[in-house]
Protein backbone atom coordinates (compact mmCIF):
# COMPACT_ATOMS: atom_id res chain seq x y z
CA UNK A 1 0.00 0.00 0.00
CA UNK A 2 2.82 2.44 0.87
CA UNK A 3 4.62 1.71 -2.40
CA UNK A 4 1.49 2.46 -4.41
CA UNK A 5 0.97 5.80 -2.64
CA UNK A 6 4.59 6.80 -3.27
CA UNK A 7 4.21 5.99 -6.96
CA UNK A 8 1.17 8.29 -7.23
CA UNK A 9 2.99 11.10 -5.43
CA UNK A 10 5.88 10.88 -7.87
CA UNK A 11 3.50 11.60 -10.74
CA UNK A 12 1.84 14.58 -9.01
CA UNK A 13 4.51 17.23 -9.85
CA UNK A 14 4.33 16.25 -13.49
CA UNK A 15 0.57 16.74 -13.57
CA UNK A 16 0.85 20.06 -11.75
CA UNK A 17 3.49 21.19 -14.22
CA UNK A 18 1.15 20.52 -17.11
CA UNK A 19 -1.68 22.47 -15.55
CA UNK A 20 0.45 25.49 -14.71
CA UNK A 21 2.20 25.78 -18.06
CA UNK A 22 -1.09 25.22 -19.88
CA UNK A 23 -2.70 28.42 -18.55
CA UNK A 24 -0.78 30.93 -20.74
CA UNK A 25 -1.27 28.74 -23.77
CA UNK A 26 -5.02 28.86 -23.25
CA UNK A 27 -4.97 32.67 -22.88
CA UNK A 28 -3.03 33.13 -26.13
CA UNK A 29 -5.36 30.78 -27.97
CA UNK A 30 -8.28 33.12 -27.15
CA UNK A 31 -7.16 35.37 -30.04
CA UNK A 32 -7.77 33.74 -33.41
CA UNK A 33 -5.64 35.02 -36.29
CA UNK A 34 -6.82 35.12 -39.90
CA UNK A 35 -4.71 35.99 -42.94
CA UNK A 36 -6.74 37.63 -45.70
CA UNK A 37 -4.77 35.86 -48.41
CA UNK A 38 -6.22 32.57 -47.16
CA UNK A 39 -9.66 33.87 -48.15
CA UNK A 40 -8.84 35.11 -51.63
CA UNK A 41 -7.11 38.48 -51.18
CA UNK A 42 -4.28 39.10 -53.64
CA UNK A 43 -1.98 42.03 -53.02
CA UNK A 44 -0.19 41.74 -56.35
CA UNK A 45 -2.86 42.84 -58.86
CA UNK A 46 -5.33 45.70 -59.33
CA UNK A 47 -8.48 43.64 -58.83
CA UNK A 48 -10.64 44.48 -55.83
CA UNK A 49 -9.87 42.56 -52.66
CA UNK A 50 -12.89 43.96 -50.85
CA UNK A 51 -14.88 40.72 -50.70
CA UNK A 52 -12.01 38.68 -49.28
CA UNK A 53 -11.06 41.24 -46.62
CA UNK A 54 -14.67 41.91 -45.63
CA UNK A 55 -15.35 38.19 -45.30
CA UNK A 56 -12.36 37.87 -42.97
CA UNK A 57 -13.41 40.83 -40.81
CA UNK A 58 -16.90 39.32 -40.48
CA UNK A 59 -15.51 36.36 -38.50
CA UNK A 60 -15.73 38.67 -35.48
CA UNK A 61 -19.52 38.86 -35.68
CA UNK A 62 -21.66 37.13 -33.05
CA UNK A 63 -18.75 36.00 -30.90
CA UNK A 64 -17.10 37.36 -27.77
CA UNK A 65 -13.71 35.98 -28.81
CA UNK A 66 -10.99 38.30 -30.04
CA UNK A 67 -9.73 38.01 -33.60
CA UNK A 68 -6.77 39.42 -35.48
CA UNK A 69 -7.04 40.00 -39.22
CA UNK A 70 -3.61 40.15 -40.84
CA UNK A 71 -2.92 41.82 -44.19
CA UNK A 72 0.56 40.89 -45.44
CA UNK A 73 2.84 42.93 -47.68
CA UNK A 74 1.19 43.99 -50.94
CA UNK A 75 -1.24 46.54 -52.39
CA UNK A 76 -4.90 45.69 -51.87
CA UNK A 77 -7.53 47.62 -53.81
CA UNK A 78 -11.06 47.95 -52.44
CA UNK A 79 -14.22 49.10 -54.23
CA UNK A 80 -16.52 49.24 -51.20
CA UNK A 81 -16.40 50.22 -47.53
CA UNK A 82 -14.73 47.73 -45.21
CA UNK A 83 -16.45 47.22 -41.84
CA UNK A 84 -14.72 46.33 -38.58
CA UNK A 85 -16.61 44.71 -35.67
CA UNK A 86 -16.02 44.46 -31.93
CA UNK A 87 -12.99 42.67 -30.47
CA UNK A 88 -10.98 42.95 -33.69
CA UNK A 89 -7.40 43.92 -34.47
CA UNK A 90 -6.82 44.78 -38.12
CA UNK A 91 -3.07 44.58 -38.67
CA UNK A 92 -1.45 45.75 -41.87
CA UNK A 93 2.03 44.29 -41.92
CA UNK A 94 5.09 46.17 -43.17
CA UNK A 95 4.68 46.94 -46.85
CA UNK A 96 0.90 46.47 -46.83
CA UNK A 97 -1.19 49.16 -48.54
CA UNK A 98 -4.98 49.40 -48.79
CA UNK A 99 -5.97 51.64 -51.66
CA UNK A 100 -9.16 52.84 -53.30
CA UNK A 101 -9.99 51.08 -56.55
CA UNK A 102 -10.76 53.25 -59.56
CA UNK A 103 -14.20 54.82 -59.26
CA UNK A 104 -14.62 54.13 -55.53
CA UNK A 105 -15.51 57.38 -53.70
CA UNK A 106 -16.73 56.35 -50.28
CA UNK A 107 -15.38 55.69 -46.77
CA UNK A 108 -12.62 53.09 -46.76
CA UNK A 109 -13.23 51.72 -43.24
CA UNK A 110 -16.11 52.11 -40.78
CA UNK A 111 -17.43 50.09 -37.82
CA UNK A 112 -20.68 48.28 -37.08
CA UNK A 113 -22.55 46.25 -34.49
CA UNK A 114 -22.84 42.50 -35.10
CA UNK A 115 -26.43 42.93 -36.32
CA UNK A 116 -25.40 45.62 -38.85
CA UNK A 117 -28.20 47.96 -37.77
CA UNK A 118 -28.19 51.64 -36.81
CA UNK A 119 -30.06 51.12 -33.54
CA UNK A 120 -27.02 51.13 -31.24
CA UNK A 121 -26.28 54.60 -29.90
CA UNK A 122 -24.05 55.96 -27.18
CA UNK A 123 -20.77 54.06 -27.21
CA UNK A 124 -22.44 50.68 -27.78
CA UNK A 125 -22.11 50.10 -31.51
CA UNK A 126 -18.61 48.66 -31.37
CA UNK A 127 -15.92 48.07 -28.71
CA UNK A 128 -12.32 46.94 -28.51
CA UNK A 129 -11.07 47.63 -32.02
CA UNK A 130 -7.50 48.26 -33.17
CA UNK A 131 -6.30 49.39 -36.59
CA UNK A 132 -2.53 49.24 -36.86
CA UNK A 133 0.33 49.22 -39.34
CA UNK A 134 0.69 49.73 -43.08
CA UNK A 135 -0.72 52.49 -45.28
CA UNK A 136 -4.27 53.64 -46.09
CA UNK A 137 -4.24 55.50 -49.41
CA UNK A 138 -7.45 57.44 -50.05
CA UNK A 139 -6.47 58.76 -53.49
CA UNK A 140 -9.40 59.43 -55.82
CA UNK A 141 -8.11 59.97 -59.35
CA UNK A 142 -11.16 61.67 -60.87
CA UNK A 143 -13.52 62.69 -58.07
CA UNK A 144 -17.17 63.36 -58.85
CA UNK A 145 -18.50 63.84 -55.28
CA UNK A 146 -17.90 66.37 -52.50
CA UNK A 147 -15.44 64.12 -50.67
CA UNK A 148 -15.39 61.36 -48.08
CA UNK A 149 -13.38 60.26 -45.05
CA UNK A 150 -10.71 57.60 -45.26
CA UNK A 151 -11.25 56.02 -41.81
CA UNK A 152 -14.50 56.82 -39.99
CA UNK A 153 -15.33 55.36 -36.55
CA UNK A 154 -18.39 56.16 -34.45
CA UNK A 155 -20.58 55.13 -31.49
CA UNK A 156 -17.60 53.12 -30.21
CA UNK A 157 -15.38 52.59 -27.17
CA UNK A 158 -11.87 51.30 -26.58
CA UNK A 159 -10.44 52.23 -29.97
CA UNK A 160 -6.79 52.27 -31.04
CA UNK A 161 -5.34 53.56 -34.31
CA UNK A 162 -1.57 53.20 -34.31
CA UNK A 163 1.65 52.91 -36.29
CA UNK A 164 -0.01 53.55 -39.63
CA UNK A 165 -0.03 56.13 -42.42
CA UNK A 166 -3.32 57.63 -43.61
CA UNK A 167 -2.93 59.79 -46.69
CA UNK A 168 -4.52 61.54 -49.65
CA UNK A 169 -8.04 62.42 -48.56
CA UNK A 170 -10.31 64.22 -51.00
CA UNK A 171 -12.25 67.00 -49.36
CA UNK A 172 -12.84 65.77 -45.80
CA UNK A 173 -10.93 63.90 -43.04
CA UNK A 174 -8.24 61.26 -42.99
CA UNK A 175 -9.64 59.97 -39.68
CA UNK A 176 -12.88 60.94 -38.00
CA UNK A 177 -13.91 59.87 -34.52
CA UNK A 178 -17.53 60.67 -33.68
CA UNK A 179 -19.14 59.63 -30.42
CA UNK A 180 -16.08 57.63 -29.38
CA UNK A 181 -14.92 57.01 -25.82
CA UNK A 182 -11.47 55.90 -24.69
CA UNK A 183 -9.47 56.11 -27.90
CA UNK A 184 -5.75 56.31 -28.56
CA UNK A 185 -4.28 57.60 -31.81
CA UNK A 186 -0.54 57.03 -31.65
CA UNK A 187 2.40 57.13 -34.05
CA UNK A 188 0.15 57.83 -37.02
CA UNK A 189 1.30 59.83 -40.04
CA UNK A 190 -1.49 62.02 -41.46
CA UNK A 191 -0.51 63.38 -44.86
CA UNK A 192 -2.20 64.96 -47.82
CA UNK A 193 -5.41 66.89 -48.47
CA UNK A 194 -6.88 67.10 -51.96
CA UNK A 195 -9.05 70.21 -52.19
CA UNK A 196 -12.51 70.22 -53.73
CA UNK A 197 -12.22 73.80 -54.96
CA UNK A 198 -14.79 75.09 -52.46
CA UNK A 199 -12.41 77.38 -50.60
CA UNK A 200 -14.68 78.21 -47.66
CA UNK A 201 -15.26 74.50 -46.97
CA UNK A 202 -11.78 73.25 -47.78
CA UNK A 203 -10.00 75.59 -45.35
CA UNK A 204 -11.76 74.18 -42.25
CA UNK A 205 -11.20 70.46 -42.89
CA UNK A 206 -9.20 68.58 -40.27
CA UNK A 207 -6.89 65.65 -40.82
CA UNK A 208 -8.25 64.23 -37.54
CA UNK A 209 -11.76 65.28 -36.63
CA UNK A 210 -13.11 64.61 -33.14
CA UNK A 211 -16.84 65.20 -33.24
CA UNK A 212 -20.34 64.72 -31.86
CA UNK A 213 -23.01 62.44 -33.35
CA UNK A 214 -25.60 64.67 -34.97
CA UNK A 215 -27.24 64.33 -38.34
CA UNK A 216 -25.45 67.42 -39.58
CA UNK A 217 -21.99 66.50 -38.28
CA UNK A 218 -22.09 62.69 -38.55
CA UNK A 219 -24.76 61.58 -40.97
CA UNK A 220 -23.13 58.16 -41.38
CA UNK A 221 -23.69 57.14 -37.74
CA UNK A 222 -27.37 57.07 -36.75
CA UNK A 223 -28.92 57.22 -34.19
CA UNK A 224 -28.20 60.93 -33.92
CA UNK A 225 -28.18 61.09 -30.11
CA UNK A 226 -25.59 63.84 -29.53
CA UNK A 227 -22.99 61.41 -28.21
CA UNK A 228 -19.74 63.31 -27.74
CA UNK A 229 -16.17 62.06 -27.74
CA UNK A 230 -14.46 61.48 -24.39
CA UNK A 231 -11.01 60.44 -23.21
CA UNK A 232 -9.16 60.73 -26.52
CA UNK A 233 -5.34 60.67 -26.57
CA UNK A 234 -3.39 61.77 -29.65
CA UNK A 235 0.33 61.21 -29.22
CA UNK A 236 3.48 60.78 -31.28
CA UNK A 237 1.70 61.59 -34.55
CA UNK A 238 2.83 63.60 -37.56
CA UNK A 239 0.38 65.93 -39.33
CA UNK A 240 1.36 67.23 -42.76
CA UNK A 241 -0.15 69.16 -45.68
CA UNK A 242 -3.66 69.87 -44.41
CA UNK A 243 -5.81 72.96 -43.75
CA UNK A 244 -6.40 71.99 -40.08
CA UNK A 245 -4.59 69.25 -38.16
CA UNK A 246 -7.00 68.39 -35.31
CA UNK A 247 -10.37 69.85 -34.44
CA UNK A 248 -14.12 69.75 -33.96
CA UNK A 249 -16.85 71.33 -36.08
CA UNK A 250 -19.92 70.91 -33.87
CA UNK A 251 -20.02 72.83 -30.58
CA UNK A 252 -23.43 71.64 -29.34
CA UNK A 253 -21.87 69.09 -26.97
CA UNK A 254 -18.83 69.08 -24.69
CA UNK A 255 -15.85 66.96 -25.71
CA UNK A 256 -13.97 65.93 -22.56
CA UNK A 257 -10.67 64.44 -21.52
CA UNK A 258 -8.68 65.05 -24.70
CA UNK A 259 -4.88 64.81 -24.53
CA UNK A 260 -2.79 66.07 -27.47
CA UNK A 261 0.92 65.59 -26.77
CA UNK A 262 4.28 64.98 -28.45
CA UNK A 263 3.00 65.49 -32.00
CA UNK A 264 4.60 67.33 -34.92
CA UNK A 265 2.88 69.58 -37.47
CA UNK A 266 4.18 70.76 -40.83
CA UNK A 267 2.57 72.64 -43.72
CA UNK A 268 -0.76 73.19 -41.97
CA UNK A 269 -2.30 76.11 -43.87
CA UNK A 270 -5.02 77.43 -41.54
CA UNK A 271 -5.26 76.30 -37.90
CA UNK A 272 -3.26 73.53 -36.31
CA UNK A 273 -5.57 72.82 -33.36
CA UNK A 274 -9.23 73.90 -33.45
CA UNK A 275 -10.25 73.23 -29.84
CA UNK A 276 -13.98 73.94 -29.84
CA UNK A 277 -16.09 73.38 -26.70
CA UNK A 278 -13.68 70.98 -24.99
CA UNK A 279 -13.40 70.41 -21.26
CA UNK A 280 -10.34 69.17 -19.36
CA UNK A 281 -8.03 69.20 -22.38
CA UNK A 282 -4.23 68.94 -22.24
CA UNK A 283 -2.04 70.24 -25.08
CA UNK A 284 1.57 69.50 -24.23
CA UNK A 285 4.99 69.28 -25.91
CA UNK A 286 3.83 69.56 -29.52
CA UNK A 287 6.06 71.03 -32.24
CA UNK A 288 5.23 73.09 -35.30
CA UNK A 289 8.02 72.49 -37.81
CA UNK A 290 9.13 74.93 -40.49
CA UNK A 291 7.63 74.31 -43.89
CA UNK A 292 6.56 76.02 -47.08
CA UNK A 293 3.17 76.88 -45.54
CA UNK A 294 2.73 79.03 -42.44
CA UNK A 295 -0.47 78.51 -40.43
CA UNK A 296 -2.74 81.34 -39.32
CA UNK A 297 -2.94 80.02 -35.75
CA UNK A 298 -1.35 77.26 -33.73
CA UNK A 299 -4.28 76.92 -31.33
CA UNK A 300 -7.76 78.40 -31.42
CA UNK A 301 -9.03 77.57 -27.95
CA UNK A 302 -12.73 78.05 -27.23
CA UNK A 303 -13.03 75.68 -24.30
CA UNK A 304 -12.73 75.37 -20.52
CA UNK A 305 -10.36 73.81 -17.99
CA UNK A 306 -7.36 73.24 -20.19
CA UNK A 307 -3.60 73.00 -19.80
CA UNK A 308 -1.34 74.27 -22.61
CA UNK A 309 2.37 73.79 -21.94
CA UNK A 310 5.73 73.04 -23.51
CA UNK A 311 4.67 73.56 -27.14
CA UNK A 312 7.17 74.78 -29.75
CA UNK A 313 5.58 77.37 -32.07
CA UNK A 314 7.92 78.69 -34.76
CA UNK A 315 5.74 81.07 -36.78
CA UNK A 316 2.11 82.01 -37.44
CA UNK A 317 0.50 84.71 -39.56
CA UNK A 318 -1.98 85.63 -36.81
CA UNK A 319 -2.24 84.67 -33.13
CA UNK A 320 -0.15 81.74 -32.02
CA UNK A 321 -2.68 80.90 -29.30
CA UNK A 322 -6.12 82.48 -29.48
CA UNK A 323 -8.27 82.10 -26.34
CA UNK A 324 -11.97 82.85 -26.51
CA UNK A 325 -14.32 82.49 -23.52
CA UNK A 326 -11.97 79.92 -22.01
CA UNK A 327 -10.36 79.02 -18.70
CA UNK A 328 -7.01 77.52 -19.66
Question: What does this protein look like?
Answer:
The chain is mostly beta strands and 328 residues long. It has a single domain (31-323), classed as Pectate Lyase C-like (3 Solenoid), CATH 2.160.20.10. Helices cover 12% and strands 44% of the residues. A six-stranded parallel barrel has the order 12-14-16-19-18-15. The chain is globular and about 55 Å long.
Relevant terms:
Pectate Lyase C-like; mainly beta; disordered N terminus; 328 residues; 3 helices
Q: What is the fold's blueprint, element by element?
A:
Elements: H1 2-29, E1 31-35, H2 50-57, E2 66-71, E3 74-78, E4 82-84, E5 88-92, E6 96-100, E7 109-111, E8 126-132, E9 135-137, E10 151-162, E11 165-170, E12 175-186, E13 189-194, H3 199-202, E14 206-211, E15 230-235, E16 238-247, E17 255-256, E18 259-261, E19 264-284, E20 287-288, E21 297-309, E22 321-323
Parallel strand pairs: 1-2, 2-5, 3-6, 4-7, 5-8, 6-9, 8-10, 9-11, 10-12, 11-13, 12-14, 12-15, 13-16, 14-16, 15-18, 16-19, 17-19, 18-19, 19-20, 19-21, 21-22
